[in-house]
Amino acid sequence: MLINFDEIEEITIPHLNHGTGEVSAKMSVQKNGKMMVSRISPGSSIGMHNHETSDDINYVVSGTGKAICDGKVEVLAAGVCHYCPKGSSHSIVNTGTEDLVLFTAVPEFSLYIHG
User: Fold this and answer.
1) Under 8 Å CB-to-CB from 108, ≥6 apart: which residues?
2) What is the DSSP letter of 111?
3) What three-state secondary structure class fits 115?
């Protein structure tokens, strides 16, 4: 299945999860989860929230920022991935001077393989 984010309408959400500023996103929702490309503007953030039913996987496409996951601060830059496991809480903050662009995958369920 091909998802072309250039063909998806971008929505802008002010104060996402009680964060600061605004976040813009192009989202594809499927029966097994969702994927999105989002832009967090400079000085903006996604507020602290809990992932009760799914993991949250965020690959940094460009920009700089920080993630705070279960109290631990992680530095974000292009090429790194921030993973917030099911049951954890996190926030993402743009600490740079340009948009923090993320590719995010939120699977409906997590697959755990036991040996």
Assistant:
1) 31, 32, 33, 53, 54
2) -
3) coil
Kindly report the number of other CB atoms within 10 A of residue 23's CB atom: 26
Q: In whole angstroms, give the CA distance from residue 45 to residue 21.
A: 7
* Token reading at 89: 């809480």
Out of 2-11, 52-61, 68-77, 94-103, pick the least confident: 52-61
The pLDDT score that the predictor gives to residue 109 is: 57
Residue 61's contacts (CB-CB under 8 Å, 6 or more residues apart) are 37, 78, 101, 102, 103
How far, in Å, CA of 64 to CA of 42, rounded?
9
pLDDT at 15 over 60: yes
How many C-beta atoms lie closer than 10 Å to residue 87's C-beta?
13
Average predicted confidence (pLDDT) for the chain: 91
The H or E element spanning position 104 is: strand 100-107
Whether 41 shows a pLDDT value over 60: the answer reads yes
